[in-house]
């Protein structure tokens, strides 16, 4: 009977990312490649985190130990991915881009940052919620041993938050690293701190009946702050933000 | 390069999958806190008892769930009042899984529950481990009385052997029925039930899910037919059901020595010494029973029936086997005492049918050897069948004989006399359910059959064929190895006179008290069969070089349930084989000190029907305990006890000639307790999800649309603010990411040193070489670029500028002297049109910048290609020929005129005020696009020579 719950939670977690995918990524093969590659890098970071978790036997049950390290690894791999993309960029520039450009393979830095952030978010969100969703499909719901009923909905909303956050973190990180001066340092630090904050916030949900409102409200406030920071980083005015959003979606100006 | 990117992409994708699997496998490893969400959602009961489906020729019995399991709201019915409350007050359409006190599990309650149409499953519980219902038997009141019986006229009402039987075992239920018999499980269920279902109806209630899907359906015929259908796609035969049956085990004293011939055995006409008729005394016991509820890995109980009868049977074998005098007499009188256990008789006597079928078809004993005499029904002297004897009221056992059958009254008298009154004869009562019925039926009651049972008219056993027929039923709370109990004393009291009488029946009186049994043997048998088959006695009998098969069944009693051949791996048969072989062994072998190889050598003799087993253990009949090993020589055989219905070729399983029971296979037995979410909660979650999805799609679509509108608008404006911005950003990006920032600085410092790209700031090219060669003005040096003589080409989309401008431009072009000159060459029709329509030249005073350039640079600046050297050499040659007008050097000779770049070299540009579009200069109508005319021939033939 709770197929209904399962479908509902899937749509909560992946509805917005899905529409983002359809409108901004699906038609650009280059962005899909970037998305997949960044997802791959996220998996690599997960592998490293799990190896660490596996190696440090006494702290295996301590989630508070594994989470910060996982955050650090994720951000480290995001930086690695940036370096890889930067290398690939020069390689791609030496290719005759006319042909690729005709197929929409324009190397747009903002789009690359966006797609890589989105890829990070998507895979991380998938890992966060897929096993919960598969458990949800049965006839029952959580609560037999006194757990809060809001667990599934809260998980779905937190997943949505992490997907969007990762997308914007990707943009912030890549854009800042492209810049010169203090912004080159500040951007990544902001991303790491925000990521750490969000991940550690979810640690308070480990009790049987946690107040999900704390992590949800803080999480979404953090999301708003990140969005604001992204806007500031890409041009201050609202108009230019709107344009930047559009540019993200429609970078290929018509070719003559 | 593109293919490389695609390949890279696929490698990445592949690696991702591998990595994903690796991480998953890593996370599946043993971690200290394996908490899945599932564990917080469901409480699973893995010690549950369940009911399965069985089929016969025409019907199916038992229960099953749907493929995905039956779920329902849990409702507990503990007492009769709860039951009536449920019947009267629960009118909603919800499906329930009733949790019912096992006391209330009978036909009337179940029927009423089924009638409500709200029953989706049934779970029985016991309130504690010690209390049990006063009676709990789901066999018929007259067991084993359907079609296959000696008394087809017998009605259930007149036959009350199992007076407490509900008959539920033989009914078909379309829902699963389970039972929890562990007190912990019951406590958990009750705890959760009171937590959720007792409070108000708004909160979520808890439900149960039962999965007992059965593969077989309809009837044995259907499922056996489906067994043989192989699935073409996967080429695997799937089995849906297995025929009921195990092994019929039989043992006797050593065979008669066969007349061996030293000559070729082929020449012996009849090597089998004929067996005299009426020479075999058959002693029967059953080894199977059934229970409504099965339990994984826990054997079915059957302490009274058939456990107690098997203990008696084996004790009897011990007494008779240890009597050397008897064996000698039996040889002398050519008689045999055959011990036979039947497996499958609790369901329509299929084992008995099989034995009789084998006897009639010369298949008994089941052997290929022609040196062995077959036993037929005619050879049977009499049948002594031991039924349950554990619950004798007044310490009295009854010999049942069929009122119409032939009996040997002297044997009965012997038995009564020997037993000192503990055994009595029931002459006028019909036989209780016993295998003898089938032997009598098949021989038209000409065979004397004696059935020993503790039942006079009804069973004392209130748990006949149920899970409660265990040691507690026999009033044995707990026995330990070699402990004398009332039960084992009772067995001894029975088995000694029985053995005495059988010996007397077989060979007549023997001197002395021949039928004594050590009490310890019975104690051990009782302990091994009823308590723990992994006992010392069995260790001493079964440990071979392969190992001991019983150690895995530690602390379990001997299982007596429905077996399916050959799939079920019950230890019962191994147990009986070993014990029977040991008790009926050749005692002369005990003294021999034999090795394992020496023991095995005996088996090579094809004329020897005995089996030789080497057992590691304390040698029997030796005073000092030596743990070495010994060879057991005995006559023991077995055959499968499938009903003849499954043996006869082309037998129609729907006919009722033979019983045709099958047991369905099943994959998963699961009982889970969980919380059902409230409808409100479910719908709310779904709606939030749908709203979020739709909203995000709408917002994205709106943004996309507004984007298009804005673009259109800006295009109409002509200002192209957005485009400029776009270009700006792109230019910036190019600058930032360009590996050659040097280009731009050079361009800034010396703008005239490099020709300006004709697309200027809007150039789309990314090739660094292009940037190196051409100057691209940035916003900073916008002013300077505007001064530069560039031909700006606007985008095709932006060509829809105002027509006024166009006309003005055209007039300007027409005023050009170059154009005027071109117009004179009337052959170039295309030139005029194209020059006027497509190109917009800017009036520019700075044409002199070009004039400063030398010939080669000038041509490159104008044409943007490097002309080959021969052009200049040819020009020089022509200048040498005709200094005044080199272009006409060839005119007089060949009527050729040098045009195109030669005109530029001739200094034609000096007379021009604007830079013409030279790409269309002398373009003929049929020229390919890159063709550049340099020599023009006859006007009428339009012959011209050019570079391509």
TrEMBL record, chain A:
The chain crosses the membrane at residues 6-26, 33-57, 63-85, 106-130, 150-173, 185-204, 210-233. It is a multi-pass membrane protein. Pfam families: Aph-1. One of its GO terms (biological process) is Notch signaling pathway. The keyword Methyltransferase does not apply. The keyword Hydrolase does not apply. It is found in: Membrane. Keywords: Membrane, Notch signaling pathway, Transmembrane, Transmembrane helix. GO terms for cellular component: membrane. Belongs to the APH-1 family. This is Gamma-secretase subunit Aph-1. It comes from Didymodactylos carnosus.
Automatic annotation (TrEMBL), chain B:
GO terms for biological process: DNA damage response; Notch receptor processing; Notch signaling pathway; protein processing. GO terms for molecular function: histone binding. Residues 1-29 form the signal peptide. It is found in: Membrane. This is Nicastrin. Residues 754-778 form the PBZ-type domain. Residues 51-216 form the Nicastrin small lobe domain. It holds the Pfam family Ncstrn_small. The keyword Transmembrane applies. Residues 726-738, 775-786 have a biased composition (Basic and acidic residues). InterPro entries: APLF_PBZ (IPR019406), HPF1 (IPR019361), Ncstrn_small (IPR041084), Nicastrin (IPR008710). It is a single-pass type I membrane protein. Residues 787-796 have a biased composition (Polar residues). The keyword Signal applies. Belongs to the nicastrin family. Belongs to the HPF1 family. One of its GO terms (cellular component) is plasma membrane.
